[in-house]
Design a protein that fits this description.
By secondary structure, this protein is α/β, with parallel strands linked by helices. The protein is built from five helices and eight strands. The protein has a five-stranded mixed β-barrel.
Length: 253
């Protein structure tokens, strides 16, 4: 009698714990499916922006209204003159939006003056600068600064704040590890700059370096695999509980 009384609460407690685990795992699986739907919608939205025709760069009066959610990756065209100011290089180990870029190197960031006087920072492209050689970067980027206006075609991008594990910028080398163009502007004396920067699509310099190019969306979409994993764990817990319950019933008979 006492054995059954002891087993009763134990079985009930284990059953409740099992239900909680199953609910958590199923909830995580459903959440991953929802994330998958959202990710597909985001990919479709970004693909549409990247495929859209170029528009004129928004007027400076409209810059405060631009946001990453509705304006990132919009294709724009404008005329500007690269300023005779120090450039910045951003370390890169590859690119999630440039399929033609692989291996370590740097992105070359330069301020460009609009005819109206405002400054837009331009990521002029990729430099195969494995060792982040400052002198090499200066020679490559210096060819772009001609003092003549040029028509630039590219994509609106927004700054990438450094994470906790992002190395600190080496200002003396003008080397950054995050695409924070406002921090570059402040450190290098570029003055007031647009709240966004432009990833250059064209034109490419005669030398081919820095290398601009079209962007493509390559967002990871592992949500279905994660959902299957969580649902499988829920099923495994249920099966394990069923096996345990049958064993308990056999002991009681």
């Amino acid at each position: 009698m006492s054995s059954k009384a002891t087993r009763g609460p134990s079985a009930a407690g284990f059953g409740i714990f099992t239900l909680i685990l199953i609910a958590v795992f199923v909830g995580l699986g459903v959440w991953q499916l929802q994330r998958r739907v959202e990710k597909h919608a985001l990919i479709a939205q970004l693909d549409a922006r990247l495929a859209a025709a170029q528009i004129a760069l928004p007027q400076p009066s409209a810059w405060p209204t631009l946001t990453s959610a509705k304006d990132e990756f919009r294709r724009v065209t404008f005329t500007a003159t690269y300023a005779k100011l120090p450039d910045a290089m951003v370390y890169s180990s590859g690119s999630a939006v440039r399929g033609d870029i692989s291996g370590p190197g740097t992105w070359a960031f330069l301020p460009a003056k609009l005819p109206s006087g405002e400054t837009v920072v331009v990521n002029t492209g990729f430099v195969q600068n494995t060792m982040q050689d400052r002198a090499f970067e200066d020679r490559v980027v210096g060819r772009l600064v001609t003092g003549e206006p040029v028509t630039l075609n590219g994509y609106i991008r927004f700054p990438e704040p450094p994470g906790r594990l992002t190395p600190a910028a080496n200002v003396s080398k003008r080397l950054w590890f995050a695409r924070d163009h406002r921090a570059m502007a402040q450190a290098l004396g570029w003055g007031e700059v647009a709240p966004f920067y432009v990833d250059l699509e064209s034109p490419a310099p005669d030398s081919g370096t820095p290398k601009p190019g079209p962007l493509e969306v390559h967002l990871r979409d592992d949500h279905m695999q994660y959902a299957i994993t969580w649902f499988s764990l829920a099923a495994a817990v249920l099966i394990a509980f069923g096996a345990w319950w049958r064993g308990q019933r056999r002991k009681g008979t």
